Amino acid sequence: MRSFAKRQSLVLACMLTIGSAATHAGLEAQSRAPAANWNRRAAAAFLDARMSWWSSWPVARRDHDTACLSCHTAAPYALARPVLRDALGEVGMTVPEARLFGDVRKRVTLWTETEPSYPDQAFGLPKSSESRGTEAILNALVLASRDAREGRLATETRQAFENLWKLQFTRRAESGGWAWLNFDLAPWESEGAAYFGAALAAVAAGIAPEGYAASEDAEEPLGMLRAHLLESPGPRLPLDRVMLLWASAELPGLLNEDEKRSTIAAIQNMQNGDGGWSLTSMGPWEGRDGYAAPRGSDGYATALTTYALLRAGVRPDRDGLGRALEWLVGHQDPTSGRWPSSSLNREREPESERGLFMSDAATAFAVLALAQARAVQE
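Given the sequence above, the corresponding structure tokens read:
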């Protein structure tokens, strides 16, 4: 009897242990759910299809058989698609990736031979210089992101940074920044969007491997860039704060701890009750011909902001980020795999090729944010 009772006691203890472990595992799985339960394959298919279309669209084609490195489709794709490649167990670049990186390499190495994306002769002054500044920043960002994954700074990436620094302003209020495209198209090609571009340049330099940001070649231009980002005249838009926070997470010496905390708090104070952020509240955007962009939480604003907060060290289960991640998971379109986002400038058919521009960026940054949250949780 004592032997039976002893065995019964041991069984009960094991059951309690297993139950406790299962409960703990269930809670852990539950805490990871917001960063786990989304359709990676559908997101990859959407981004690949959009990048393939963009590369072949006649409006996006450029000289030397290349395509425009756009803020809405191509550059976000270059940042996000490798993350999905890892998650899906793919080997090597996809065809759209290889084409994109091939275009960037070609335009960097043939920098003095390629034409500006929007030459003055066709679009008026100062579109050539704006095109060059914008492209130089995006080229450096795309190549640095690739090299950061590979752990080696490629020759063409060094050249991309050389091209970038040669175009950096060195005088007056614009010192440290660049000319940036302005077609009155918010949020990326509008008045004040040059700050967005400068922040991307900081991200590019910060993520470049082999200690590039601390190198002698980068010391002086990065000093001017830091000053530009911190001392730019005029009120800083909420979108600028998000970009500054992201840049500070990649490039040392931008924000001290107190400044980072206050920036995070200001961004979190703009979070909506449903967990998302609204793009319409991140700047003084005005649509054309009386158009008013939809208010409320938006795929691009929520994804970019969540990603910036995560990169800055905010935990996925703290300070509202859990709700933000739940918002992202809950708003992936189950059919297309994309995260919907609307134009700030004019009424567009949501399913049209141009109407999907904002969704391209929203989807790429949602992928980055959810993958970053998962990486932190693991």
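The chain has one domain: 39-377. Try to locate this feature in the token string yourself.
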